[in-house]
């Protein structure tokens, strides 16, 4: 049934007056939540407040959609397996510029906005930097006027909720959807069927020729979208985050159920729900690998069907897709979309393969986030062919096309052809998703200047030779609306008092703060704000995890995904060495320091989990020793997420960015620390290189080998034993860890972890230790000079503006997507 819409009255946009807001909150509480104000609980108020804010967002959302439809311009589609959006209420009320009115409205009702906001769960849609980057990009696209959709998965449980039990990581379901999600809207009319496995047959009219085929999947599920509005700054544009939920074709086989075969009757329902149950299921088993590939194809296929449907609806001719749509692949997770779009064009829309391939390549672009070969996904050919038989055919066809070009026009030898092939034949034959994303995109970007150059030299060396104009750089950025204005309103107010409000619309205007770096009065105000944020964090950690820390100490913070290349282990070993030095030389003037760690280890990553346990074991010993009280403390913050990050970044004095040079693609935590006035201690890795260029050599503490030096040492006859023997501090610390000083209940718990350093030291922990230790002593000396520390901190904030995600998105829009702004 089609309803008449033209000429129907439209509701007036909602007003922002505090008295009107208060009235509407009570109305929502009464008629949507079913409570009167006298009996409402805090979570009832939260729901009512969100609904009132949401109404105003909807006004802007509908206007944005109408403008998109009327403009008929090019749209951007951002495909990502993660969107770490965090809590949305404060973000939305701030970007809609109604924070003061909402505080006043709730205050008139006897309710504290801050108390209510703390009840909102973090959306469990991501893990680390990849997902948070996607969230920052979505907000920036709305802010600067890029018409965009984000596409991902509506995870029921997300990654996991991390608890720490006896120092070990314990993984529990993250039940963020247990009580519903008032921000989302189900769009069942835009559901699509997604298939797996089955058989492929030649279409009758093309029998015996390459081209159109008929795929008859053995398993089918329904992808149903849930839309969340993403508000840009000042509410001028609202884009859409569309997340897919999986539903079975037949939820229950009633005959089987009534016959007592309960599990069999619910099999299809269980298989469908598993697709959107957990982010990154452990892939150490074939079943885990299968689920991971199924997830990736599920959301990619649904997204591409939606994009194609919208294009045909608005523009008619599928052949113009690349002129009206730009699809960004955020890492290799949606890389199967290259083959899926070709399938849709060839098998559904009757386009010849060569033309379909050209359309796909001009439509896609690909962001690479890693130089780790093992992180560039690959799937065994038997698994890929069993789950996606038609796509396997298309991968072979694409590969044949690419390899012929390489052989005939470029004269590639066997080794180069093997390197660019979509099929890795060294051992078990595997489909290389990184190569598929590369050849299937017209542009491939790195996420920092160093990373982009290393891409050309390492993981994509031969593909770069084949397509020398394809790789470009787009250094990452973060949205300052959340990572300065929302999480640090005290510093925001101080900056506005000093340089005016222009930086709120253009982060690069923060550079005007440089003139206050030597101003003693401003330094005192700046450091007073820092102390206030440290007190807030101290109070939070005391109630959250029982950690009691002194706000007058240096807050030395490393918060990120736990991985050996990020070198939390180097930081922990330094804590052990510093512990020894303080006890041995109590007469020295030590700078009081609290080392704060946070981050999750992947479920199947044994060494990362062991590093978490070591951090907690070291903390237990150091924190109970009266010899170092007031001088050194170690804290591990459980369940690090966006909401925890919003407390930690503003309180940091020292930002630990200490990855092995050449292994961190960019980092975005380094930028969030920087804008909040933390001083970076780091290697010349990822975006640290560009932070150094922006803040100046005197306002950052750099240590360790460069990426070239790391590569040379790995290729040479590097012997970590010699390094260790010549470093008394390092040797003593490693011996203490290896022989059970911190694990008396299990003397050999860390022997394997330390053996990895002693025997081969792939991540250069031993090689960089002495340099790191010296850098930390320099940090101590700077800390004692309060005026110098304040100057450096101000310089970091003042020169952080270039790392705005608005700048990054403008570069994507102009140089890759070709979207007019």
TrEMBL record:
It comes from the Bacteria. It catalyses: [(1->4)-alpha-D-glucosyl](n) + phosphate = [(1->4)-alpha-D-glucosyl](n-1) + alpha-D-glucose 1-phosphate. Its EC number is 2.4.1.1. InterPro entries: Glycg_phsphrylas, Glyco_trans_35. The modification N6-(pyridoxal phosphate)lysine is found at residue 672. Keywords: Allosteric enzyme, Carbohydrate metabolism, Cytoplasm, Glycosyltransferase, Pyridoxal phosphate, Transferase. It is found in: Cytoplasm. CDD domains: GT35_Glycogen_Phosphorylase. GO terms for molecular function: glycogen phosphorylase activity; pyridoxal phosphate binding. Its main location: cytoplasm. One of its GO terms (biological process) is glycogen catabolic process. Its cofactor is pyridoxal 5'-phosphate. One of its GO terms (cellular component) is cytoplasm. It holds the Pfam family Phosphorylase. Belongs to the glycogen phosphorylase family. Allosteric enzyme that catalyzes the rate-limiting step in glycogen catabolism, the phosphorolytic cleavage of glycogen to produce glucose-1-phosphate, and plays a central role in maintaining cellular and organismal glucose homeostasis. Phosphorylase is an important allosteric enzyme in carbohydrate metabolism. Enzymes from different sources differ in their regulatory mechanisms and in their natural substrates. However, all known phosphorylases share catalytic and structural properties. NCBIfam families: P_ylase. This is Alpha-1,4 glucan phosphorylase. It comes from Hirschia baltica (strain ATCC 49814 / DSM 5838 / IFAM 1418).
